[in-house]
Amino acid sequence: MNIFQIKKHLKKRWRRWRRAIWTASAFCLIAVMAWMGLPLSDQMEKLMAREPMAIETLGKWREAAPDADHAWLLELDEDKSRIVHLTKIYTCGEESSVLGIMTPVEITALMKDHPAWEGRLGAGGDVWIEEKIDGLSDTCKTRGYIGLDKDGNLTLFDGPPKKEKVIRTFFQMDVEMMESALPAEVIQQLQQGIRIQDVEEYNSVLSTFSDFAIEPSERVMQQDEE
After folding, report:
1. Domains of the chain: which residue ranges?
2. CA distance readout (Å), 77 to 73, 82, 102, 121, 175
3. What residue ranges of the chain have pLDDT lower than 50?
4. In terms of DSSP bridges, do strands 82-92 and 127-136 run parallel, antiparallel, or are they unpaired?
């Protein structure tokens, strides 16, 4: 092999190495940008388009990379399966379940099929996903009551208020003001618990009694007087 053939061989090898190094560096850069929630600029895309291998890399990245809301998927280890939890957050109530043990590929596909879902990687390594639903959970449909707890807070109960099985506390009520403004039968109904059967009724009850909610500043004044 003469000197010219050697130079030609080295030049071809260098071009191959340059493309490999450039592509690996570009992929690392856009991975970091996606993890930080930063979009690729037009200048970056034009620069990548100059290299044939970079064009292929960019195309694969656009197809597989998660959006900013799902950037946590980049934290998943390629060879580690994880337990996936799903929490359905209803207008009234919550329901939790375990979807099973999934690989990173399966988790990514799941989130891609449900873009409205929100997820995160927990401290223990499990994946926690939330789905928000406009409606009532089964618990609210069958046993949901809104009433007053012993401290005068408007509260959602699992069953009548007397059972004291609290699902959610909304706000503290000005009971004296409410008793002077509303009919006695309404007050009695609230104390016994108002049965919630649909979203419209749920929102209506909250809207009605929110007029008697104590503002944070008023609570401080009452505590000082006590």
Report:
1. 3-65, 71-136, 143-216
2. 9, 10, 12, 11, 54
3. 2, 4, 7, 35, 37-38, 40, 43, 45, 47-48, 51-62, 64, 217-226
4. parallel
| pTM: predicted TM-score of the whole model, two decimal places | 0.58
CATH for 71-136 (3.90.1480, 3.10.20, 3.40.50, 1.10.150)? 3.10.20
> Do residues 161 and 149 lie in contact, with contact meaning Cβ atoms separated by under 8 Å?
yes
Return the CA Rg of the chain. Answer: 29
Helices (H), the chain: 3-35, 42-48, 52-64, 104-113, 138-143, 175-181, 184-192, 199-209, 216-225
Q: Which CATH architecture has domain 143-216?
A: 2-Layer Sandwich (3.30)
